[in-house]
Design goal:
InterPro entries: AraC-bd (IPR003313), Homeodomain-like_sf (IPR009057), HTH_AraC (IPR018060), HTH_AraC-typ_CS (IPR018062), RmlC-like_jellyroll (IPR014710), RmlC_Cupin_sf (IPR011051), Tscrpt_reg_AraC-type_HTH (IPR020449)
Distance between the termini: 30 Å
Keywords: Activator, DNA-binding, Transcription, Transcription regulation
Pfam family, one: HTH_18
Number of domains: 2
Largest sheet: 6 strands, mixed
CATH topology of the largest domain: Jelly Rolls
Number of strands: 11
Radius of gyration: 20 Å
Number of helices: 12
CATH superfamily of the largest domain: Jelly Rolls
Structural class: alpha+beta
GO molecular function: DNA-binding transcription factor activity; sequence-specific DNA binding
Helix content: 40-55%
Protein name: AraC family transcriptional regulator
Shape: globular
CATH architecture of the largest domain: Sandwich
CATH class of the largest domain: Mainly Beta
Strand content: 15-25%
Amino acid sequence: METLGAEATRRRIADNRLDGSDAVAFAFVDAARHVAYDWHAHTGHQLLYAVRGVVHLETSERRFLLPPQRAAWIPAGLSHRTAIDDVESCSVFFRADLPECPEGVGLRILAASPLMREMIGFATRWPPGTPSDPLAESYFRTLALLCRDWTEAEMPFHLPVARSPALARAMDYAQFHLAKADIAGAADAAALSVRTLRRRFADEVGMSWKDYLHHSRLLGAMARLGDPAISIAEVAEDVGFASLSAFSKAFAQIAGESPGRYRRRLCQAARIGPDRQQNLPVESLSG
């Protein structure tokens, strides 16, 4: 993966003309692959839709996983960094002062309804630098109003970020040892007693170590399910679930669908490029 520093990230944003537009909004189809962008913030609001592949997003407070066929709302001015692997994505950037846009909303992962997907696809006829026209302005203002409704329901595809080095080490231990991680190993990584780790996790992170590990395992499974060479049972074992039934139940609780249906959507997205998606009927997009 290519890792861009701060200056290279700023140049890439400038080259793609993503900031400073006077237009109400525009759409951008990202052709980049296997890139990690450094910390940056956009002058406009971003509605990011992952057609295929998994996007990793991070703010100062949370780490987010954006699965395929889902979207992220990233408000103007929010410092974040992004890592994309083999990802196809499309974004709509709204001018920050557009009154129809959501207000007071942080970065959120959203369920991408068929309407959202169709509207983002149609919006690609107005790429960066396209002169504004009455149809575009009306269209994007309507889309911004719909974003107000969509951002009211957030999908729980995120994890907290540690404020202290000790808890950061415990979190890293969990991420790299999902199958076998336990509280004793996390305490050793953090150089803390088990009792102290439990207390500090609750105080600093706002969730228990057990809940953090459980959520980490499910997000790790979401990323692994994109590889059709690994069976669902193997994914469950790789992230630390004792049985396939327990994994399927926990996965459905967070993702709103079974691991099998989630994988089928990923496989369908992998077969359909973004150019074709714009012209497909809603039924094909929704799986």
